[in-house]
Each structure stands twice: as structure tokens, then as C-alpha cells.
UniProtKB/TrEMBL annotation:
Gene3D superfamilies reported in the protein's UniProt record: STAS domain
Species assigned in the record: Streptosporangium pseudovulgare
Matching InterPro entries: Anti-sigma_ant, STAS_dom, STAS_dom_sf
NCBIfam families with a match to the protein in the record: ant_ant_sig
Gene: rsbV
Protein name: Anti-sigma factor antagonist
The STAS domain, residue ranges: 20-121
Family membership noted in the UniProt record: Belongs to the anti-sigma-factor antagonist family.
Amino acid sequence: MFVGNEPEPSFTATSGLHGSTIVVQASGELDHYHTPILRAELSKVWRAAPSKTVILDLSALTFCDSSGIGELLQARHNGQVRGFRLILTGIQGNLARRLNLAGLTQVFEIFPSVTEALEATTC
């Protein structure tokens, strides 16, 4: 849907509480133009999270460029500085290929799904 001359957003980031764990759902294209949206959502989470675990669900990403990967690395750093555990879930497609090629699958804590990450955080 178009409002005036502005196109429909091609990226969204929303967060919700699952028990005491915040899950941030990223959807669409994470690129140079949209990294500020993810950064703003995570900034809210860092300030208000009831626990020190945040799950970033990337299963609905359709694209992620090098700017998006840089933002994920910055989110990891920002979380660590604040004492948070950041878990990535739902990595697939071009993001999975880029992370593998860059050797970053060893840098992030990754689970296939939000459900599996939530189970791991309660153990």
C-alpha cells in the first residue's frame, strides 16, 4: 500500500516478550537503508528487556547485504557491552551463505528456530 509518494517499507523490526525473553522479529530487506530500523528496535530492547537474553529472529529476511551483516555484528557488540546474550535464529538463504563465507557462524550464537533458542535459554 502506498501513502502519498512513500513506498511500503521493505524492512520491519518488531519485538515481543516470550516468557522473560525478548524476541525481535526482523522482516524484509536488511540493507544500508534499513539498518537504522533494526538499530532503533534493538536500542529499545537493550533499555527495557526484563532478562539478559535477546533472540533476533531472521527467518523472515528476504535479503541481507554487507551493511546488514555489519549491523548484526554491531548488535552483538552492543549486547555484549550491556551484558546481553544475543541469539540469532532462522538464518537462511543469502544471509546463511554470507555468514558462512565470512566465517561468522562461529562468532554468533545461532539456533535454527525461535522455539529451539527459547528451549536452550531455559535449560
